[in-house]
Amino acid sequence: MNDKGEQYHICCKKGDVGRYVLLPGDPFRTDLIASYLDDAKLVAHNREHKTWTGTLDGVKVSVTSTGMGCPSMAIALEELIHCGADTFIRIGTAGHVCKKSWDESLDGVICTASVRDEGTTRHYIPIEYPAVADRHIVGALADAAKANHLNYIEGIVQSKDSFYGQHDPSGLPNGDILKQRWDAWCNGNVMASEMETAALFVISSIRECRAGAIMSFKNMKETIVIACEALMKIIESDKE
């Protein structure tokens, strides 16, 4: 806690955020996502964590940026859970991995699970523990994509720690190992590469929360619409 009784990094407390939270990485993208909420208000902005809170269908919903990488995601997620949130959808961008992912008709990926190719979650639980999305959120995202006539494939993504380890491995001491591992993800039908979902899925599972993620290859605004519509479906289901 800080001296105002708020969570130290996100600078929020109970009552500031909703049970449901949309999670972009980029703090500047929170402004765009918040525009899809009703009566959204800026709650806090500290470091890479920017939070807005509004409503969807009359229910409190927040948007918080996680920053880049699993360490930053883990901090934001833990503190949001401390504030009372329990349902999360990450909205992000990702790079193509396997051959199938390069299909030009694809708009993006709905993440079913994540390769734990990062270090943060190893501090939580052994590597054998899977990083898996909540199936109800996956289903809601898939339904919303179909309703909007968009082509988001369901699949596994890779969460990595080093952006340039992937994009510029030549000359690195571990370069050959990185290339070998990349070939394994390609041959294993991993659909996309990004930097946060492993922490989101593992920590949410351990903390008995729900989490999903959708990655855009093309149009971020369409991806936001899908995430918001999926979240409204989850909210409606929770009401029942």
Overview of this protein structure:
- It is globular and about 50 Å long.
- 33% of the residues lie in helices and 28% in strands.
- With 240 residues, it is of the alpha/beta class.
- It has 7 helices and 11 strands.
- Strands 1, 2, 3, 4, 5, 6, 7, 8, 9, 10 and 11 form an 11-stranded mixed beta sheet that branches.
- Helix 3 packs across helix 7 (220-239).
Largest sheet: 11 strands, mixed
Order of helices and strands: EHEEEHEEEEHEHHEHEH
Strand percentage: 25-35%
Count of DSSP H/I helices: 7
Q: Tell me the Rg in angstroms.
A: 17 Å
Helical residues, percent: 25-40%
**Mean residue pLDDT:** 96
What shape does the CA trace take? globular
Query: What structural class do the secondary elements suggest?
Result: alpha/beta
Secondary structure tally: strands: 11
First and last CA, distance:
35 Å
The low-confidence runs, each spanning 5 or more residues with pLDDT under 50, are none
